[in-house]
Design a protein that fits this description.
The complex is a heterodimer.
Chain A: H1 3-15, H2 24-35, H3 43-69, E1 82-88, E2 93-99
Antiparallel strand pairs in A: 1-2
Chain B: H1 3-18, H2 22-32, H3 39-52, H4 63-81, H5 100-114, H6 118-128, H7 134-141, H8 145-163
Helix pairs in contact in B: 2-3, 2-6, 3-4, 4-7, 5-8, 6-8
Amino acid sequence: MTEDKRLDESISRLVHGIQHDIPPSMEEEIHRKSEALEPRPDLPSYRRLLWTLLPSGAALILGVMLLRQAPMKPRNSDISEIRTQFEIADKNITIVFIQKPDFVFYEEN
Amino acid sequence: MNPRDMAAAENTAFWNLLAPLKINLYNFILKSLNFATDADDVYQETILHGFQYFASFRQDKEFRAWIFSIAHNEIKRHFRKTRKRSELGALKLPLMTSPGDEAALVKEIYRYAAGLKPREREIFFLFYESGFAISEIEEITNLKSGYIKLLLHQARTNLKTKLGVSHD
């Protein structure tokens, strides 16, 4: 027998040096309370239900998010015009082309 | 067998399985809570929860480990609720049943246990009071076996010197 095992036995014996009895009044109270209790569904089936509801809940949230997005108008582009600039440095000339939505360079007839 | 008879049979099975474990379960809870008066409430809650959820008990499992795992959860819940209250009052050691010369050693053991953290004290009493193996304590508490072994090793090291237990 190892030293640890012998020590464990000694500790266990000493721990059992104090033992309490269950108060009879408490036993009666427990039995009385248990009679009023309804057995609940077992824990595994409760968990199964939770796992079934979880994806449905996630799908619902996703659906709501998509529906909230749908009526939104597409945002206007931040680009309202296109500028193209050329500088001819030695002649101190700057040529600027500004392209706007109503800009027409030329029209074909 | 009609549903009412089945329910009655299930209730009887629960009380029959519990009967030989009651005293041990009660003492485990009492000692894990440092003999606090709340221990009676925790014991009651454990039994009533066990009774209510007995349908979830799988017959291939050991009932003893199952009911102790409920007790473990109730103890945890108790300490969560009473965290703000002082847990360690003056340790009162009631009902000394050991012979005179051992009484001092028993007191030493309980003084050591009272100084442990709630979870450590639970492991200490699951092992030394209720006689569970490390693998069973692992199952009851969901703690790693390495941690349980470490705590028991610390307990042995501390108590060895305190008790001066000889192994001749």
